[in-house]
Design goal:
Layout lengths: L11 H4 L3 E5 L8 H12 L4 E5 L5 E2 L2 E4 L11 E4 L6 H10 L4 E4 L9 H16 L3 E3 L5 E4 L4 E4 L7 E8 L2 H14 L3 E6 L8 H10 L5 E6 L5 H12 L4 E5 L13 H5 L2 H11 L3 E3 L2 H12 L9 E5 L2 H13 L9 H10 L10 E2 L6 H13 L5 E6 L7 H12 L6 E5 L6 H9 L4 E2 L2 H21 L14 H13 L7 H10 L8 E3 L2 H11 L3 E6 L12 E5 L2 H18 L7 E6 L7 E10 L3 E8 L4 H4 L2 E4 L5 H9 L18 H17 L3 E12 L2 E4 L2 E5 L23 E4 L5 E6 L5 H9 L3 H8 L8 H8 L6 E10 L2 E12 L5 E8 L8 H15 L4 E7 L3 H9 L3 E5 L2 E10 L10
Parallel strand pairs: 1-2, 1-5, 2-4, 5-6, 6-7, 10-11, 10-12, 12-13, 13-14, 15-16, 15-17, 17-18, 18-19, 34-35
Antiparallel strand pairs: 3-4, 8-9, 8-11, 20-23, 21-22, 21-23, 24-25, 24-27, 25-26, 27-28, 27-29, 30-31, 31-32, 32-33, 33-34, 35-37, 36-37
Helix pairs in contact: 3-4, 6-7, 10-16, 11-16, 12-13, 13-14, 14-15, 17-18, 19-20
């Protein structure tokens, strides 16, 4: 079934074509058509190659035809290099001729103006009508060295290797190809996206995830259109392969107008950073870092952790490395007592006695060997940087050979830094030749280790699958929605402070009680009832920052002061902002907490990735301090801890001198509640809780402001979010006929152990029916793919029972949505002991209803003809059983969900 990772990908015609036609092929030297033909021939393409040009009968020995429809066999891939106005018609001809995919090299489309945009729309319409996939337009093309495919107009060729590169810039592709040739680095794929009118990052990354030739993925990004698809593909890739990306456009020339502190501070790049961290991938900031990361990945430097040991023969280089590590928050490993004792025995008495490990200037190769072996054996060391500075007593080549020998004994990341040039060039070259990244200075070596270790750290974030709601008391979601709906009905987008606090209260965020008053006498009476001292604040929909107009007064001590303050504040506002509307004045108790820390919790809505949550220092100077960290919801405890640790404000939360530590549990609860709010209230566009006052006793929101808007389009539940929450609402209980209770729930990443055990103990027949092969157990890649799913476009329901106090998996049903977004493929397997007890029918019935509720039109699956029990089950559920073209051993089961039998779930 297509839900299995070893099935042929639908992009095979594009990236594994058995036949290619160059449309616009030319014999004119230097033309794009001539370069394309020349590159395909020089690369040794292993399939059938054709040229299409009415002016020639052959081009460079390749048979040439007047039109694609006259090529004697069906073509998988058409590479088009003709003027833009001709391309929509050529796409139409390709579709009619049965071509499955096209690469449009030609420029002159949307990037050139309205006329070009019209051509691009026509191109896409024709392609979709024929279900033909298009890469480009205005792209460099595709390189697949393993099959001799070089459908680009780049100079030079790529050697086969394990790096997969996808880039929105053709120039970056050519630069990377040129760099790779000089450094003997190979590629599995190089894909230039160009205008991305059809094929985009998400689908191509999906392909590389399942491509056995690709071990590492590099991305160069200028913009993302489909956040859900992008995030889904990145998360799927990062589960099994390191992914490093570079995105440009980090500092836009202008910033949008915002009506909250959060909106003013948090830009699109902050949110993008949060997204890639949550996806488990690593971001490079410069092309140099991307190249260095590519070098490390091509050398099979795999992440183990982030604790680095530095071995050096000079104190200065060691300090340089330590400084750069500190800059990048890379912890220097704390050497174990055993390692320290070992080093004391083999090193001179005046060695550094710690990390960095300074071997002293007269260090020999044997001294390097002893230190390196000790570090590689230390469980507290995740990677080692070996530095050599040329000194009279040091032999760079001999030390390099020693490092190479030691590297064979460990799988920990190992990097070399042979400082200098003439005396050490041979040593650097020798290290590189044996797959050990070698640098001329400590800083770039530390940068590479930072990228490798960031992958390790981000993998922890990838595994987090929090639900939309915490385990705290259930929020009054309908009450909060009513407040927002009433404001929108009045054509207001900014909630008043009272309304904002009502929304917070509905989600159990502690708030300072407040009342709105409309006269000085009323202010006095309310203040007396609350008890002095009080705080008074202007309430105006037109004033975002109240303190800027003298609209916040603290510590008002008595009744007379309350009356005077009301008059003074309202008159001051009229002078400073005569156009502003006055809704009244808010009176609330003065919350005086001697040990309180003023923090900011906010929400911003990104155009691509949807809602994001921010945390940092609060108060009136938030923009000046610019202390914030950003995370994508939904959140859980680990993600919140990561969010808090990313700010300077985190240092204020611990005990300090006479100040007790702040209540971290209370802060975490507020952040969990805010996560719930953005999951359940898609109308929220911006929000400030500023300040959120936190001390040892708890947390309280002193001020709040929420900006809302009608969603631009109707979306399914959680459709406004880049990451779908864990669908806890789908957890259910089922009782077997013998009274055994079974929990049916969506699978989670932490189910890897029980999923592996479940597949391992299946009978050979059950494995054959499910996987259609003699699989014995799931590989780590397959296990990650099966347990770390994207709940938006796939579902896996597992049936678990309790045995000896632990969960045991006894069945699983799953579907994955096809690229058309309207159909899905299913699979199911039940433990042999649970056959014929109704569990399989129950799992399928639930799966069908979930697919139907998500708007899918059809569900299909391939079933072995010999699997009569599954054929009978699917037929009884309303599936139509038909033949599978080209395979007599398979039957195709298809259910029309829109009009299919509605199954009663027992």
């Amino acid at each position: 079934m297509s839900v299995d990772p070893f099935m042929r990908h639908y992009f095979a015609p594009l990236l594994e074509p058995e036949s290619v036609a160059i449309i616009g092929a030319s014999a004119q030297a230097g033309s794009v058509g001539a370069v394309l033909i020349g590159n395909m021939l020089a690369a040794g393409y292993r399939g059938k190659l054709y040229a299409v040009n009415p002016k020639h009968q052959e081009v460079s020995g390749v048979p040439c035809f007047p039109a694609i429809g006259e090529v004697p066999r069906r073509v998988d891939l058409a590479v088009i290099a003709t003027p833009a106005p001709t391309v929509p018609g050529i796409i139409e001809q390709c579709g009619a001729a049965g071509v499955r995919a096209a690469v449009v090299i030609s420029a002159g489309f949307a990037e050139s103006g309205p006329a070009g945009a019209k051509l691009e729309r026509a191109l896409l319409e024709n392609a979709r009508r024929h279900r033909l996939r298009v890469l480009g337009p205005n792209c460099l093309g595709i390189v697949r060295p393993a099959i001799g495919l070089n459908a680009t107009f780049a100079r030079g060729h790529a050697r086969p290797g394990s790096l997969g590169l996808i880039s929105q810039s053709g120039a970056v592709c050519t630069a990377m190809l040129d760099w790779a040739a000089a450094h003997d680095v190979g590629f599995s794929s190089v894909v230039s996206l160009g205008g991305s009118t059809d094929v985009d990052f998400g689908e191509l990354v999906d392909y590389l995830v399942n491509d056995s030739k690709t071990a590492h993925i590099l991305l160069y990004i200028e913009g993302v259109r489909d956040a859900r698809r992008f995030m889904s593909a990145l998360r799927a890739a990062a589960r099994v392969k390191p992914v490093i990306l570079m995105k440009v456009g980090r500092h836009p020339a202008g910033s949008r107008a915002a009506v909250s502190h959060t909106g003013a501070m948090v830009g699109a790049d902050d949110v993008f950073d949060a997204a890639v961290r949550r996806a488990g991938v690593v971001r490079a900031r410069t092309i140099g870092q991307l190249v260095a990361a590519a070098q490390a990945l091509s050398s099979n430097v795999r992440p183990r952790g982030d604790r680095l040991a530095v071995i050096t023969n000079g104190g200065g280089p060691g300090v340089m490395a330590a400084d750069r590590a500190s800059d990048l928050a890379i912890p220097l490993a704390e050497l174990s007592a055993a390692t320290i004792e070992t080093l004391k025995r083999v090193l001179p008495p005046n060695w550094s006695q710690g990390n960095p490990i300074d071997l002293i200037g007269d260090a020999t190769a044997e001294r390097y060997r002893a230190a390196l072996a000790a570090c590689l054996a230390d469980p507290g060391v995740d990677g080692v940087l070996v530095i050599l500075a040329p000194q009279a007593m040091t032999a760079p080549l001999e030390v390099a050979r020693t490092v190479i020998e030691c590297a064979k004994t460990s799988d920990k990341p190992l990097l070399g830094c042979w400082m200098g040039e003439e005396q050490v060039a041979g040593g650097r070259k020798l290290l590189a030749a044996h797959g050990i990244p070698a640098f001329g200075a400590p800083e770039p070596a530390i940068d590479v280790f930072a990228h490798v270790s960031a992958f390790y750290r981000n993998q922890k974030l990838l595994l987090q699958t929090p639900g939309p709601l915490s385990h705290h008391p259930e929020p009054a979601v309908s009450d909060a929605r009513l407040v927002i709906e009433n404001a929108l009905a009045e054509r207001r987008t900014v909630l008043s402070e009272m309304e904002s606090k009502a929304v917070l209260a509905a989600f159990h965020v502690p708030i300072a009680p407040a009342m709105r008053v409309h006269s000085a006498p009323e202010a006095m009476l309310v203040a007396q009832e609350m008890g002095f001292p009080v705080v008074m604040k202007i309430d105006s929909p037109d004033i975002t920052h109240k303190s800027d107009v003298g609209g916040v007064r603290l510590g008002i001590p008595n009744a007379q002061a309350a009356q005077e303050t009301y008059r003074d504040m309202t008159e001051s506002m009229k002078r400073r902002r005569p156009e502003a509307r006055l809704s009244g004045v808010i009176v609330e108790p003065m919350v005086a907490r001697r040990h309180g820390r003023e923090l900011l919790v906010g929400v911003v809505h990104d155009r691509v990735f949807g809602p994001a949550i921010t945390f940092g220092s609060g108060g009136t100077m938030v923009e000046v301090h610019a202390d914030r960290a950003v995370a994508l919801p939904p959140l859980n405890g680990m993600l919140i801890d990561e969010l808090i640790r990313g700010t300077r404000a985190s240092r204020l939360l611990g005990a300090f001198r006479n100040m007790p530590a702040a209540n971290r549990d209370a802060l975490e609860t507020v952040l969990l509640r805010v996560s719930e709010m953005v999951c359940e209230l898609p109308a929220i566009r911006e929000m400030d809780i500023n300040p959120l006052l936190v001390d040892e006793a708890g947390a309280v929101a002193l001020d709040a402001r929420i900006v809302v808007a009608h969603p631009a389009v109707a979306l399914p539940r959680y459709g406004h979010m880049a990451i779908h929450p864990y669908p806890a609402q789908l957890v259910s209980e089922w009782t077997a006929s013998d009274g055994t209770r079974v929990t049916i729930r969506p699978i989670r990443p932490e189910d890897a152990e029980i999923e592996s055990a479940f597949v391992k103990q299946l009978s050979p027949e059950a494995k054959h029916f499910r996987f259609m092969s003699a699989i014995r157990e799931l590989s780590p890649q397959m296990l990650a793919r099966f347990t770390q799913i994207d709940y938006d476009r796939e579902m896996a329901l597992i049936a678990v029972t309790a045995r000896d106090g632990r969960e045991e998996e006894v069945g699983v049903s799953r579907y994955i949505t096809n690229p058309d977004g309207a159909s899905c493929e299913f699979a199911i397997v039940v433990d042999d002991e649970w056959q014929a007890r109704g569990l399989g029918r129950h799992l399928m019935a639930q799966l069908i209803e979930i697919a139907r509720s998500r708007g899918l039109a059809t569900m299909s699956g391939d079933i072995l003809t010999s699997n009569q029990a599954m054929l009978a089950l699917t037929a009884s559920l309303g599936f139509a059983i038909g033949e599978t073209p080209g395979d007599a051993g398979l039957k195709r089961a298809t259910l029309a969900l829109e009009r299919g039998v509605r199954v009663t779930i027992p």
